[in-house]
Specification:
By secondary structure, this protein is of the alpha/beta class. The protein has 3 domains: about 5-130 and about 225-430, Rossmann fold (3-Layer(aba) Sandwich), CATH 3.40.50.300; about 135-220; about 455-510. Helix content is about 50%, strand content about 15%. It has a 12-stranded mixed β-sheet, with helices on both faces. α10 packs parallel to α12. It is elongated and about 130 Å long. Bound molecules: adenosine-5'-triphosphate and magnesium ion.
């Protein structure tokens, strides 16, 4: 058997599946595509997470597009974090290109241009289904992690949540959260102290400053109602294809805190609402995070720990996370070690640091008699990648330099009018894009403070009236005793100025 035939057998045997799978392309040997040597990923192991890495312009985003399309076709819904804004083309068929035909002829797969069911979502004021969540839904633990507060401050946040629970004060947006923090050391100080102990102004001040940081990154747009129900990410269209939900995040690059807040809240929400998955052999939802270094670079230690543990746990809910980034070293070791699918596009060896990264990356792939991994890593062309997946038994598939198939949808973005049309037909836009500001902690506390102030004034007036009465009766009894000398206090109490000022206060209070 020739080396080429052996290789073909090695690849085809290693990529045979009993259940459903998707095809990424055909394997390459010595830089040439071997026709029909398909590289497949079983749906069954797609909840085991993955990585798409490679230097700029090598084809990472197109690989993401290919994966999303093929999952959708198999009825698996997809969620994409579109940081560069280059994924909306999924909603339109590819116009085709001679280079695509050439690519598919080499792979041995027909090329069929297709559009996919797409929903566009947004975290900001851009067009799209508005994604929001309330502070209550976050809960004290997650909020503390996101704000990156000290243990003492986290304790205060727990107390605040407890108070709001006990007093039925809905914590919806940042305005509510700030108000209750101010209340705890202001008007409500005694009430808090009695029920939960003293809260220091220094601590609430520090928490408030952290909230303002989030606010400055546009957090007030994200926190509030109507909160997004993650089940809406699981829709299937009338042809049985999974919806591709694209979150437009083009304006998020300079707002890393908001981005990681959102990511974490989404993962936590998915984790808490999705049921444990039985052995269905297919994932419930696949999530792709393009430019993933953005969440990892800016995340605090606490947040990183949270992400790491959610990555571990969410698998059992049938949710797969795929990180797309230039350098695999952008992803923390603890996350990296949990990834089942690796699609590594070309790396460039410009600097000593690059060469070190290539060496490290090569070590993460299984040894093979067909490739020198480090060599292949630097010689892959555009739209080619080293692929290592998990087979249905959970063991690595043969390492394959792969000529990736082309996206069936457009490799470019939607025009403004195409996007408008898409949104005008969206049911989710109708469901989520109405602004609601129902009565919550902010309004309720303001009301409470006003009431307390009015009561205080009333009480003061009552006391003063009492004092006046006492003075009056004393004055009278004084006369009966025929005292010639007036007590100095009584003198003050009956003086014209005093009475006038008391009446002044009384009339003011009555007017209120
Ligand atoms: N699978 C593919 N089929 C056909 N063409 C491809 C494929 N992958 C990449 N290309 C070509 O390469 C170009 C760059 O690909 P892509 O945008 O995916 O790179 P990238 O790695 O995401 O780059 P960046 O780091 O800048 O985001 C595409 O515009 C397309 O022309
Ligand atoms: Mg890209």
């Amino acid at each position: 058997m020739s080396r080429q035939d052996e290789f073909f057998k090695h690849i085809t045997e290693g990529n045979t599946n009993k259940g459903e799978y998707i095809t990424l392309g055909s394997a390459m040997l010595d830089g040439k595509t071997v026709k029909n040597a398909y590289v497949n990923v079983p749906l069954k192991t797609m909840n085991r997470h993955g990585l798409i890495a490679g230097a700029t312009g090598t084809g990472k985003t197109k690989t993401l597009q290919v994966l999303a399309e093929n999952l959708s076709e198999k009825g698996v819904p997809v969620l994409l974090m579109d940081i560069k804004g280059d994924l909306s083309g999924l909603a339109q068929p590819s116009p085709g290109h001679p280079k695509i035909d050439e690519r598919h002829a080499a792979i041995g797969l027909p090329f069929e241009p297709k559009a996919f069911p797409v929903e566009v979502l947004t975290l900001s004021e851009q067009d799209g289904v508005r994604l929001r969540a309330t502070i209550s839904e976050f809960g004290p633990v997650l909020i503390s992690r996101i704000l990156d507060v000290t243990e003492t401050q986290a304790g205060i946040i727990s107390v605040i949540f407890k108070y709001c629970d006990d007093n039925k004060l809905p914590l919806l947006d940042l305005k509510d959260f700030k108000k209750i923090l101010q209340y705890a050391t202001g008007e409500g100080k005694e009430e808090f102290q009695e029920a939960y102990g003293r809260i220091s102004t220094a601590s609430t001040g520090a928490i408030l400053r952290k909230i303002i940081e989030i606010e400055q990154q546009g957090g007030e747009l994200f926190f509030g109602e109507k909160s997004f129900e993650v089940d809406d990410l699981l829709r299937i269209d009338e042809n049985g294809r999974g919806y591709i939900n694209i979150i437009r995040l083009t304006d998020i690059q300079d707002k890393p805190k908001l981005f990681s807040t959102f990511m974490l809240s989404l993962l936590a929400e998915i984790y808490s609402t999705f049921p444990e998955q039985g052995d269905t052999g297919r994932p419930e939802l696949i999530m792709f995070i393009d430019e993933a270094h953005l969440i990892f670079n800016e995340a605090s230690k606490a947040l990183l720990n949270q992400i790491e543990s959610i990555v571990k746990l969410i698998r059992s809910k049938g949710v797969g996370l795929y990180f797309v980034t230039q350098n695999p070293t952008d992803v923390p070791e603890a996350v990296l070690s949990q990834l089942g699918l690796k699609v590594q596009h070309a790396l460039r060896a410009f600097t000593a640091k690059d060469r070190k990264a290539i060496k490290l990356t090569a070590q993460n792939y299984p040894d093979t008699e067909y490739y020198d991994t480090a060599d292949v890593l630097t010689s892959l062309g555009t739209g080619e990648a080293l692929v290592s997946a998990l087979n249905e038994k959970g063991r690595p598939t043969p390492l394959a330099a792969t000529m990736m198939r082309a996206p069936m949808s457009r490799m470019d973005i939607l025009t403004d009018s195409e996007l408008k049309n898409l949104l005008s037909e969206s049911n989710l836009v109708k469901k989520y894009n109405e602004e609601i500001d129902r009565e919550s902690a902010y309004e309720m506390l303001n009301e409470k403070i006003e009431q307390a102030e009015a009561e205080e004034a009333k009480e003061k007036a009552r006391q003063e009236k009492e004092a006046l009465k006492k003075a009056e009766s004393k004055r009278k009894s004084g006369t009966t005793r025929k005292s010639t000398r007036m007590n100095p206090i009584v003198k003050v109490l009956t003086s014209a100025t005093f009475i006038r000022s008391v009446f002044g206060i009384l009339t003011k209070v009555m007017k209120k």
